[in-house]
Give the backbone structure.
Amino acid sequence: MLENKDSYTKIKSMLVNIVRKLGEKENYLNRLDAEIGDGDHGRTIVNAFRKVEELFLESETGKGKTNSLDRNADIGALLKKAGRTLAFSTGAAAGPLYGTAFIEAGKVTEGKEEIGLEEWTKLMEAAQAGVIKIGRGKVGEKTMLDTLHPMVETLKQALRKNEPLKKALLSARKAGQKGMESTREMVSKRGRSSRLGERTRGHIDPGAASAYYIMETIIETCLRNGE
């Protein structure tokens, strides 16, 4: 079990690491998006998560009191707060999609101070359900779901087998990477890129890529904090 006695510090650490990772991948994500979209996915997603990071920084400095965070809040409450900020961070689809994923994950971890495999499985299932509800997409349509779904299924299988959490998370990370890479051979069925049809084949979906980098960072941060 990954203990999380200081939820605020660890969620903040997770977000700082996400912003750092997305910053490193910003140009790459923009290039992926330029091949089948508007070419700004990297910039959009980095800016969205920076706004959440700023929420934590403002809370510490006493600025932005209307959006202040309770430093004694539990994991779920903080995830929901982060999600609401993400949802309104940009006019692009990425904000509401990621925002809803965080909000739904927060709902099933509300009141929690530690996260075990069962909670991880529930929060990932909830995040995926939120993305499906907002985006109305399906697995195989070249979206972030193609990253999230194999991660969910891997965690569910690990839970049935009662595997150690670290092993389960590492397996989920690997499954997410394979899912992201699988979008290369898919034809886009959602968003503006769907208008390009077969021309989208041969390119990794930028949303699937950013979803992988975000989940990779969350997993790495949680494992590091839990050891």
About this structure: The radius of gyration is 17 Å. The first helix runs from residue 7 to 36. Strands lie at 2-3, 114-115.
